[in-house]
Write a structure and sequence with these properties.
The protein has about 290 residues and is α/β, with parallel strands linked by helices. It is built from ten helices and twelve strands. The protein has two domains: about 120 residues, Rossmann fold; about 140 residues, NAD(P)-binding Rossmann-like Domain (Rossmann fold), CATH 3.40.50. The radius of gyration is 19 Å and the shape is globular. It starts with 15 loop residues before the first strand and ends with a helix. Strands 2-1-3-5-6-4 form a six-stranded mixed β-sheet, with helices on both faces. The structure holds 2'-monophosphoadenosine-5'-diphosphate.
Length: about 290
């Protein structure tokens, strides 16, 4: 039995199996996270890291039912390609354009995406009082994480979403992908230049979805002065947990939400589907996962 990593103890022949496919997969905190819940709930099961090369993803996914796996999480670089490889997708996965959770069912592989759910749940847990309708939300970045969060914010009822990205063409592409959902929900979408002075004016939420501020990456340099004092500042970077953005926001008195909550909450629906228990995000879980960051 290991402390903190995936295996919950000795496995019986009936053990429920799940895991995470990535390339590389060694950095993934998911085995530690699911391992905590498996031990906590004394489940006869295991959650294992699966190093799957990009051109073998289809083979690996197709092997899941034969191996008796209940499903897997997917991480870089498999999330987008998996959309075309599963048998069915949930509306969330289709709209986000990526799969992070695969559930093996009677009728094949179901691809879901729980990243947006995880982000909204982390806001709800980390910042009492944030309301989607309170004001414009500003999203820095236009990658896969930005798309998941944008979809979730529109669904949550944000009425104005400002997309800000270093490469404006990517933000325009993201805006085009979100246009139908935004129209349906009556949300306004705008694309603003990187470091636009007006981007933060009147906003109630600022979210960093870029890699800036992550260990080994350049810092995110942004002047928070135009941001209203009560605006919530969230970062999806969780290494370090307290990014420069969050430290700066905290110093100005903004409520802040760190990136670990999204990681922890996005895992809950998969665990529930595979192992039959709805797990909780607790301080003990946070501490265990944080210890994995070294
Ligand atoms: P993911 O899918 O994980 O969200 P991604 O698609 O690689 O990751 O996106 C990374 C985001 O970080 C992008 O918005 C990227 O901006 P560009 O579209 O201009 O590349 C942003 N990013 C990365 N390095 C950056 C930097 N030095 N300055 C500004 N933005 C940066």
């Amino acid at each position: 039995m290991t402390d903190g990593d995936g295996v919950s103890g000795y496995l019986s022949g009936r053990a429920a199996l799940a895991g995470v496919m990535g390339w590389p997969v060694g950095h993934s905190l998911s085995p530690r996270l699911h391992g905590f819940w498996l031990r906590q709930h004394r489940i006869d099961g295991a959650y294992v890291p699966l190093a799957v090369e990009p051109d073998r993803l289809e083979q690996a996914l197709r092997a899941l039912p034969a191996l008796g796996f209940r499903g897997v999480n997917l991480t870089i670089p498999h999330k987008e390609p998996a959309l075309a490889l599963v048998d069915r997708t949930t509306p969330a996965a289709a709209r986000i354009g990526a799969v992070n959770t695969v559930i093996v069912g009677q009728d094949g592989l179901l691809g879901d995406n729980t990243d947006g759910y995880g982000f909204i749940a982390s806001l709800a847990a980390g910042a009492r009082g944030w309301e989607a309708g309170a004001g414009p939300a500003v999203l820095l970045g236009a990658g896969g994480a930005a798309r998941a969060i944008a979809v979730a914010l529109i669904d949550a009822g944000v009425l104005e979403l400002r997309l800000v990205n270093r490469t404006p063409a990517r933000a325009e592409t993201l805006a085009a992908q979100l246009a139908d959902a935004a129209r349906e929900r009556g949300a306004a979408l705008t694309v603003l230049p990187w470091q636009d002075e007006d981007a933060l004016a009147g906003a109630s939420l600022l979210v960093n979805t870029t890699s800036l501020g992550m260990s080994g990456q350049p810092p995110l340099e942004i002047d928070l002065a135009p941001l209203p004092a009560q605006a919530l500042v969230a970062d999806i970077v969780y290494s370090p947990l307290e990014t420069g953005l969050l430290a700066g926001a905290r110093a100005r008195g903004h409520p802040v939400v760190d990136g670990l909550g999204m990681l922890l909450h996005q895992a809950r629906p998969g665990f529930r589907a595979w192992f039959g228990v709805a797990p909780e995000v607790t301080d003990a879980l946070r501490a265990t996962v944080l210890a994995g960051l070294g």
